[in-house]
Amino acid sequence: MGEKKICLIDVDGTLVDYSGNLPQSAVDAVRAARANGHEVYACTGRSKAEMYQNILDIGLDGMIGGNGCYIESHDDVVFHQLIPADEERRLVDWLNARGLAFYLECNSGLYGSPTFREDGRETMRLYAKGKGKPEEVYSKMEVTDAFPEMIFGADPYRDDVNKVSFILKSYQDHLDSAAAFPDLKAGTWGGKGEAALFGDLGVKDITKAFAVGKLCQWLDADPADTIAFGDAKVDIPMFEACGQSCCMGSGGDEAKAAADYVTDDVDKDGLAKAFAHFGLV
What is the pLDDT along the chain (281 residues), one digit of tens a residue? Predict the structure, then answer.
């Protein structure tokens, strides 16, 4: 099977489809690769609390979460960079003053603002529609369907926040958030460009690529022995940081152009086919 490889797998759109379906072929491929002596890590924008049980049950060597702000390897916390508590408090106050519903992404859980359950209903339905869910599903969707374990009513002033996501009333909210919080990294998700549904703010100058380097240092591994698997523009820095890279056939054009290899769609056994291509199984 060749030299030991370290595999970094994006979750949404790569390990699972955007409806959260996990192909059995992907589970089998990950387990077979680990049995062959390779290591496999999730590398995702999700915080640890969003790593659903079906993903954890696969058996992984660790994870990179929050797009790089959290690194865990064999139950050891390698790195964890949080939004400073004073900045988090100012951000919560700013969002409340603008009437923007939000949730706090922490390893201990997802904490929704008082209005997120109500204000987020239509936004989550639009998000689900955009991800291809059928009308009979998205038309009746509630926030608690998308985030079944979201916690409401907790104190929003916290010192353990990885990232904050908030509903955009307009694209200007994103632009204003970037201007108001220059020490944080501002982004959007849920749609392309000005059609984005959510804004988010997280730790600045940290990416999946940064985290890959940190993990390799911890493992005393050569980055040349890493393989990145992803599907989106956010994965491109990870592709560039790793020795080899693979984009899913169902991924975006920019990510495909940046990858060394393009496999099949996520729901057509694409990850398993990629593992075979790279000689992991």
Answer: 458 999 999 998 999 987 788 999 999 999 999 999 999 999 998 889 888 889 999 999 999 998 899 999 999 999 999 999 999 999 999 999 999 999 999 999 999 999 999 999 999 999 888 877 889 888 999 998 888 889 999 999 999 999 999 999 999 999 999 999 999 999 898 877 778 999 999 999 888 999 999 999 999 999 999 999 999 888 999 999 999 999 999 888 999 999 999 999 999 999 999 999 999 99
Tokens of 82: 């949080």
104 touches 87 (CB < 8 A): no
SS3 string, 224-249, reads: HHEEEEECCHHHHHHHHHCCEEEECC
E strands, 113-169, are 151-152, 161-167
What the chain holds in terms of domains, given with CATH numbers, is 6-81+206-277 (3.40.50.1000), 85-203 (3.30.1240.10)
Total residue length of the chain: 281
Residues 244 and 278: beta-carbon distance below 8 Å: yes
The pair of three-digit structure tokens given for residue 10, joined into one six-digit string: 């994006």
- Rg, C-alpha atoms of the chain: 18
Asked whether 230 and 219 are in contact (CB, 8 A), the reply is no
- Best CA proximity match to 244, nearest among 222, 231, 268, 226: 226
Alpha-carbon span 142 to 4, nearest angstrom: 44
